[in-house]
Design a protein that fits this description.
The protein is an alpha+beta fold. Helix content is 41%, strand content 15%. A hairpin with a 7-residue loop joins strand 1 and strand 2 (58-64). Helix 1 (3-19) packs across helix 2.
């Protein structure tokens, strides 16, 4: 059960760059969902996230751009920590 959030964080970290698309025009940076990538750090951005263990259940999460950035940093640090602290069988 403990491995599910870690697996989700790893999959999210790997999938996000792969889903990135070039902006529609040089002046406007927009992500896959049509949301602006740049903006004031205090602007609230809402995203729909799937619940772990369900293909259909989703949850809408709203945070400021600064909070989303911090969440990405924490998730990335957790993934890196898990990758560097692997325990190999027999070694």
């Amino acid at each position: 059960m403990r491995h599910i959030p870690l697996s989700l964080a790893i999959a999210f970290t790997i999938a996000v760059p792969a889903l990135a698309q070039p902006p529609a025009s040089p002046g406007s940076q927009v992500n896959v969902n049509g949301q602006r990538l740049n903006g004031p750090p205090g602007e609230i951005v809402c995203r729909t996230q799937r619940d772990t263990g369900s293909r259909l259940k989703t949850q809408r999460v709203c945070m400021t751009r600064q909070q989303w950035s911090e969440q990405r940093r924490v998730d990335r640090a957790d993934v890196e920590k898990a990758q560097t602290n692997r325990v190999w069988p027999g070694g």
